[in-house]
C-alpha cells in the first residue's frame, strides 16, 4: 500500500478556483473534481482539515464593496466562506465522505461553532473538518485562517491549492517573464512582497515552523502527489 508522507494536513482551497470558468459562484463540475481529489487523499488515511475562501461570492476589497465600511464588507466575505463550506461539505457527503463544518462566527442554526477540542476529535475519528468564516475577524484573509487553524490542530503542512502552480518571482498572471521557485524561505517570500499569500499568513507559519506548499488546483492528481511526498508546486519553508 502507498504510504502518505503526512498524518494531518490543512488544505486551503481558493474560493475563486471554485468558479471554474464561470464569472462567479460555484461551478458544479469544479467542486466535484476538487472533492474527488480530496477523497483520494482521505483514502490514504491522512487526516484532513480544510479552509475555503469566499472570493467567488464576495471579496471585501472588491469593486462591489467600494464605499462600504471595510469591516462590514469583510463580514460579508466571511459569510461567503460559510456558503462555500456548506456546498463543499454537501458535495463530500454525495461522494460518501463525512465532513463537519465549524464556523468562526456563531450562526448556530446553520453550522456548529468552532471548538478546537471538538475539531481535533473529528479529525481523530477520520472526519473531514471544514473551517468556515475565516478567522472570524475582519482585516484578515482565509490564507491567514489556514495558517491559524493549521497551527492550532498541529498540521504538518499547509497545502495551498490555487490557480497558479506555485510561487513565482512576480504575479505570473501579470508578468509572463516570472519564474517559479521550487522552494523559498518565508523571509524571502515576505521581503520580496510575493503576493501569492499575505504577509500575516507567511509570518504566522514561519513563527510556528509550519511549512506551506503552494500548488495548482487545476493540475490533475497534484494533491495526491504532494501527500505521497512528491515534489510539486513550491515549498515555503523556515
Ligand atoms: N509571486 C506570485 N507567485 C504566484 N502567484 C502570485 C504571485 N503574486 C501574485 N500572485 C497571484 O496570487 C494568486 C493566488 O492567490 P489566491 O489567494 O489563491 O487567489 P485568489 O485570491 O484569486 O483566490 C494567483 O492566482 C496569482 O495571480
Ligand atoms: O479571517 C477572515 C477571512 C476572510 N475575510 C473576508 O472574506 C473574504 C474572502 O476570503 P478570501 O479573499 O481569503 O478568499 P479566497 O481568496 O480564497 O477566495 C476576504 O476578502 C475578506 O473580506 C475576513 O474578513 N476575515
UniProtKB/TrEMBL annotation:
The gene is pyrH. GO terms for molecular function: ATP binding; UMP kinase activity. InterPro entries: AceGlu_kinase-like_sf, Asp/Glu/Uridylate_kinase, Uridylate_kinase, Uridylate_kinase_bac. Pathway: Pyrimidine metabolism; CTP biosynthesis via de novo pathway; UDP from UMP (UMPK route): step 1/1. NCBIfam families: pyrH_bact. It comes from Noviherbaspirillum pedocola. ATP binds at residues 12-15, 55, 59, 162, 168, 171. Its EC number is 2.7.4.22. Residues 7-216 form the Aspartate/glutamate/uridylate kinase domain. UMP binds at residues 54, 74, 135-142. This is Uridylate kinase. Catalyzes the reversible phosphorylation of UMP to UDP. It is found in: Cytoplasm. Pfam families: AA_kinase. It is an enzyme of class 2 (transferase).
Amino acid at each position: 500500500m502507498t504510504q502518505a508522507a503526512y498524518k494531518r494536513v490543512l488544505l486551503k482551497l481558493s474560493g475563486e478556483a471554485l468558479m471554474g470558468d464561470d464569472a462567479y459562484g460555484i461551478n458544479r463540475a469544479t467542486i466535484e473534481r476538487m472533492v474527488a481529489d480530496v477523497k483520494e487523499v482521505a483514502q490514504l488515511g491522512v487526516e484532513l482539515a480544510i479552509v475555503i475562501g469566499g472570493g467567488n461570492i464576495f471579496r471585501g476589497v472588491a469593486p462591489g464593496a467600494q464605499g462600504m465600511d471595510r469591516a462590514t464588507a469583510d463580514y460579508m466575505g466571511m459569510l461567503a466562506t460559510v456558503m462555500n463550506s456548506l456546498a463543499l461539505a454537501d458535495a463530500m457527503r454525495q461522494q460518501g465522505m463525512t465532513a463537519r463544518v465549524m464556523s468562526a462566527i456563531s450562526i448556530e442554526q446553520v453550522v456548529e461553532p468552532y471548538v478546537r477540542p471538538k475539531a481535533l476529535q473529528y479529525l481523530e475519528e477520520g472526519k473531514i473538518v471544514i473551517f468556515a468564516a475565516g478567522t472570524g475577524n475582519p482585516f484578515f484573509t482565509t490564507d491567514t485562517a489556514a495558517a491559524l487553524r493549521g497551527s492550532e490542530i498541529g498540521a504538518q503542512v499547509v497545502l495551498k491549492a490555487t490557480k497558479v502552480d506555485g510561487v513565482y518571482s512576480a504575479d505570473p498572471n501579470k508578468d509572463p517573464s516570472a519564474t517559479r521557485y521550487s522552494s523559498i524561505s518565508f523571509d524571502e517570500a515576505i521581503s520580496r512582497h510575493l503576493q501569492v499569500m499575505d504577509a500575516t499568513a507567511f509570518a504566522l507559519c514561519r513563527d510556528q515552523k509550519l511549512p506551506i506548499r503552494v500548488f495548482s488546483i487545476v493540475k490533475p492528481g497534484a494533491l495526491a502527489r504532494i501527500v505521497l511526498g512528491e515534489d510539486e508546486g513550491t515549498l515555503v519553508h523556515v
